[in-house]
Amino acid sequence: xxxxxxxxxxxxxxxxxxxxxxxxxxxxxxxxxxxxxxxxxxxxxxxxxxxxxxxxxxxxxxxxxxxxxxxxxxxxxxxxxxxxxxxxxxxxxxxxxxxxxxxxxxxxxxxxxxxxxxxxxxxxxxxxxxxxxxxxxxxxxxxxxxxxxxxxxxxxxxxxxxxxxxxxxxxxxxxxxxxxxxx
Length: 183
Fold this sequence. Notes:
Layout: H1 8-20, H2 24-47, H3 60-70, H4 75-96, H5 101-115, H6 128-139, H7 145-167
């Protein structure tokens, strides 16, 4: 149809080869980037008196600049958030533009380093999804994912270990810790 010497079957074959090499982490990065952009839109709609005046095609980098300019919290917190979002965008761009694995890893390391200003205890092997969740929590002044997990783990231990021991639940008679006589 294009009236050029293009082999459509060879093109379909190349697409199939490309599909076989899809990096799941890249899909995760792109998905969370898009999701974060939607969350930034939500925050901007609360910060700006007339958010509908923003251009609909405003890019991620421009949105995070507007977010930094409109930030009502502590200036340092806004600057930390701005850098984390900039690094997330750099990581997304690295993936989207086909950078080498080493280059992508370099941007991920820079993102994690920037994120440490938000959560100094973040693990070096943190998942991209947890970083994105942490960014949302930070924008909302809420607990970070690591903190929520710690509370959930403590509750799990309380409900499944401490209470059963205290009430003698879950132990078989005659087992260590069972001080009740057999009935």
